Amino acid sequence: MYTASVLRAGFTEISQKALAPPPLDELFLAGLENVRVIDPGLRVDVTPSDLILVSGNRKLGVTPRPDADDMRGWIATTILLFNASEPSPDNRDPEVLFKMMFNAALAKIDGYSRYAGRGSARTNRANRNGVIGLGLTFDVVDEGLIIRSTIENGPAETAGVRDGDLIVAIDDHDLAGATRDEAMRYLSGPSGSRVKLTIRHASDTQLSVAHPRRGLVIPKTVKAQRIGDVARISVGSFNIRTASDVAATLNRLKREAKTPLSGIVLDMRGDPGGLLDQAVALADMFLDSGTIATLSGRHPGAKQFYAASPGDIADGLPLVLVVDGKSASASEILAAALIDNERAVVVGTNTLGKGSVQTLIRLPNDGEIALTWSRVMAPAGYFIHELGILPTICTSGHASGETAALTAVAGDPVGQIIDRQRWLANSGAPDERAELRRICPAENRNDGDFDMALALKLASDRALYARSFTTNLAESH
Hints:
By secondary structure, this protein is an alpha+beta fold.
């Protein structure tokens, strides 16, 4: 019953919500044909009337082929053939079946829908929403736990725990020879409860004691620094606190500044995306009005329209986004909203082109499916998927140098306007998208400093910033 309930929940959601799902029988057949993940020697032969599980020359199981849309029949058939696969208890683990079926079925939908088992799903949820804990990572050594990192302002750091410290005991449990699972069990506890850590600091031979209080720990996705009169804010991904952290960071930089800020640089290079609502909230912070994004899909819940509300946290300061070929999904939605509403100059290369949105489906086994259920239309009216964002200033192929930076800004204004008009008017045909993406080829530029130097120059020079808008005209109006 448990196995059937997980399969039923997953395949029902896929059938009802996927952007363009294949027929039900094709989804199940894709999963069954993936039986080789259990044993490379296994296969399922499909006839018009039967499904036959074969190992080498032996038939391990035969079952009638269900009708194309018979959910109950396909689930029963799947479980029967799985149980016939081999006698090994490991192969009877339902999680093996779930991965086999969901991974193959979701691969027929697109390259972004995916299944995560219980453990991976819990990690994913912790990265998105946070987890109750101390905010530290560690390596297990013979003497105890070596702290690898602590989250800024998290419970452990606040209590004085530092990178490189050795924890020798937790609540008087000696950690010498302890396993990772034992250590995790000792560290776990309800929110608000205190834990006693006996520590040897890296710089001290004496033992000391810390009493951090467990709490909600959300990974930091925002880093910032002031460079001259420019606020540089890097966003690594989008979790539930990203937008509020950007706002708090920007307000802090403005408050601590001896001189007013001249501009803002948002560094989105390498940002794979994350929570849609955070990208929308971040775009809204810098926009007084205008469309942020429009989502279209088959399921009613997939159809969404997002518009900006009055209020610009930056009060109109020059805003420059830096993107590259690894900027994807939520970061592309943000870039499109700001460039199409003429609020920002975008520097870099063509982005990844992941303009689809996944809904997260929690399953009875505590695993989850991330299922593509909508496509994103940019404010200017084009679909982002498999096209990406064309930056205002293309840095593809540029390496360094002030002259190169100025050339990138000046460029060929007429040609750049024509390129943008072609971008906005594209028909969506694959060949046309591929040709357009060659205008400013996607590159991984996360390690280079040329793009950032150019962005900082634009943000600090209002005349140069204004000049760059020549190629960012309002064709979307």
